[in-house]
Amino acid sequence: MKRVLWNSLIALTLLRGQAARGAEPLSGAGATFPFPLYQKWISTFEKKFPGIQIAYKPIGSGAGIAELAAKRIDFAASEFPLTDRELASFPVRVRHIPTVVGGVVIIYRLDGLVQDLRLTPDTLAGIYLGKIRRWNDPRLRSINRGLPLPDREITTVHRSDSSGTTFILTSYLSQVNAEWKSAVGAGAVVPWPTGKAGEFSDGVAKQVAAIQELPMVKLMAELRTPVYGNDPNELLKHRFLYRGGLALLCGPTGIGKSSLLYQAAMHWAVGKAFFGILPGDVFQRSGMRILIVQAENDEGDLAEMRDGVLAGCTDLTDAEKAEACQRISFATITDKSSDAFATVLDGLLVEKGPFDLVIIDPAFAYLGGDGSSQKDVSHFMRELLNPLAQKHRVGVILAHHTNKPMRGKEKENWAAGDYAYLGAGSAEWINPARAALALRSIGSDTVFELRGVKRGKRLRWVDEDGLATNVQYIAHHLDEGVICWRKATAEEVAELLAETGEGRPRKCHLVEVLHCINRHENQNQGFYKSMVSQAVGCSENAVQNAILEGVEKGMIRFVGRGREKLYSVTEKGVKKAVERPSHHDWTNQ
User: Fold this and answer.
1) Would strands 447-454 and 471-476 be described as parallel, antiparallel, or unpaired?
2) Does pLDDT of 2 surpass 80?
3) Residue 544, domain CATH
4) Distance between CA atoms of residues 275 and 267, nearest Å
5) Is the separation of the CB atoms in 71 and 57 below 8 Å?
6) Residue 221 lies in a domain
7) To which H or E segment does residue 289 belong?
8) Given pLDDT bands bounded at 50, 70 and 90, which one contains residue 445?
9) What is the pLDDT of residues 429-444, one digit of tens each?
10) How large is the average pLDDT for residues 103-116?
């Protein structure tokens, strides 16, 4: 829509204006639009000419002209000029002096739009005439194709006092729409057919702020069935995550939630499934634009994680990896939280967007309050992030920490609903979220449970028997330099699910490996894997994990002999073995 331009004028009384150069201050009143600029001009003028004082009151164009006619002021500001007839009958001689050129524009409040609303002269006139009463009116939809215009009533706001802004807008509407010209016409005060009125510019602003967007109410029969397939708002398949929705990934600190989310982003950016979590049909073809907002890593850490994740994504081609790197953006925010963080994020989505998905890592860094306070968490999730997701039509996934287990133990006797509340702090973290995943420790340093804890059935996962499930087992890559997750092997899962009499998953304890190596030094890994697995009753893979753990902790060392590695126990490992006697006689093995 074209902007309407108009001069702001000063009508100056010539006689009193000249006489007022003495001790009396010059006084003026009128239009509210140029008031900020006049304030600045007056301040600058008075500093240069301290003997002259000027006062100006923003009371509206019509009121300013009335004050000038009553000879109570020296000059009046107006956005519309006096006609020749008015000048001829004016009680004092005045002169028009143009001062400011500005724009009169229509503002609107309509959350959830990713593009600007389009209006034509006729639709604008139709709104102010009361002929177009709802945002989803066919006349508005026809010129805003693709915008999700809501089924809500339109409320207009206008000036109640004599206003130059009103004169400009109504003059424009009279020029572009014959019905408006005949029914309402142009003027500083007109009989508005519809809408609420506010006195002066600040009165209009207060009316706009006071308008509450009530939630939409529909009959059950009016509810529209979602689009299944080719839905541009379905970010993750089967409506697991939709544009405007929040989701959580909960997991213990330090196990790799960040790398898991970055690996997911790599796949979704090029339309590929990640551990069976599929992008929506549209994004399987086009990929996603993803913004990752993080607080804990510097650029070097992010580059290492990128390279490590890429090294492990063997299911992506080199071309797909390069494409993903062009569709994923990072923003590091370390000094903002709560409302200040939301303001910065809003700016990023406006200036750097559009994006389809935003990943926030970690959520605690940006809360700016007590994570156990329902009030603080609700403000962050419901009043800050949810409106931003709706406004910019993005999905938001937050990385969230789980509570620390008491004395290293996991909760026993889990009920299905318990998993959704794994996240630390208030239950309000999970309540506003549309979907949630939990990365759960199950007794291994390598293998973890990935569980769909909210809307998990929508993932449509199946187990090896073809039965529906909301659980997968995933594991860290063991290769050095690969910061990536992989699907756990059947052997790893079977080992972990085989329970001892104490109800804990069976694993190979490092202390048993230390005793075995100490008794049989300088053997290769295969020797120890076979011996320990038979003695302890665990898998060879579990023994391998224990050996790697010992190397990382400085309790086991190895030397190369050709293509083999021969292992022995360090002094630190011997000390640990002395502290923890073995349950097996390794001498006779």
Assistant:
1) antiparallel
2) no
3) 1.10.10.10
4) 10
5) no
6) no
7) none
8) confident
9) 989 999 999 998 777 7
10) 77
Banded model confidence at residue 31, pLDDT cuts 50, 70, 90: confident
pLDDT at position 589, please? Answer: 65
Task: Tell me: cis bond preceding 138? Omega within 30 of 0 counts.
Answer: no
What whole-number distance in Å separates Cα of residue 268 and Cα of residue 274?
Answer: 7
% of the chain at pLDDT higher than 70: 87
Task: Tell me what pLDDT residue 421 has.
Answer: 53
- Virtual CA dihedral for 455, 460, 465, 471, nearest 10 degrees? -40
Are the CB atoms for 374 and 223 separated by under 8 Å? no
Query: Is residue 178 scored above 70 in pLDDT?
Result: yes
The helix-helix angle for 164-176 and 121-129 (nearest 10°) equals: 120
Gyration radius from the chain CA atoms: 35
User: Is residue 188 pLDDT above 90, yes or no?
Assistant: no
Residue at a domain's end among 177, 195, 210: 210
Least confident of 113-117, 229-233, 544-548: 113-117
* 418 and 549 together in one domain: no
Instruction: Tell me, yes or no, whether 457 and 380 share the same domain.
Output: yes
User: Residue 344's domain is classified under what CATH number?
Assistant: 3.40.50.300
How far apart, in whole angstroms, are the C-alpha atoms of residue 331 and residue 247? 19
Do both 459 and 558 map to the same domain?
Answer: no
CB 288 within 8 A of CB 357: yes
Say yes or no: 254 and 321 in one domain: yes
In a domain, 218, yes or no: no
**Segments forming the whole domain that contains residue 179:** 121-210
* Sign of the dihedral defined by the CA atoms of residues 316, 317, 320, 326, in that order: positive
Percentage above 90 pLDDT, the chain: 42
Q: What is the domain-level CATH number for residue 17? A: 3.40.190.10
Helix (DSSP H) and strand (DSSP E) numbers for the chain:
22, 22
Tokens 């349950």 belong to which residue? 583
In terms of residues, how long is the chain? 589
SS3 call for 29:
strand
Q: Which of 438, 418, 385, 455 is nearest to 257 (CA)?
A: 438
Can you tell me the distance from the alpha carbon of 513 to that of 558, in angstroms, rounded to the nearest whole number?
14
> To which H or E segment does residue 324 belong?
helix 318-327
Q: How many domains does the chain have?
A: 4
Q: What element of type H or E holds 67?
A: helix 61-69
Residue located via tokens 């008794």: 519
- Beta carbons within 10 angstroms of residue 385's beta carbon: 23
Are 203 and 75 members of one domain? no
Instruction: List pLDDT tens digits, range 135-161.
Output: 999 999 999 987 888 888 899 999 888
Q: Identify the residue with better confidence: 479 or 42.
A: 42
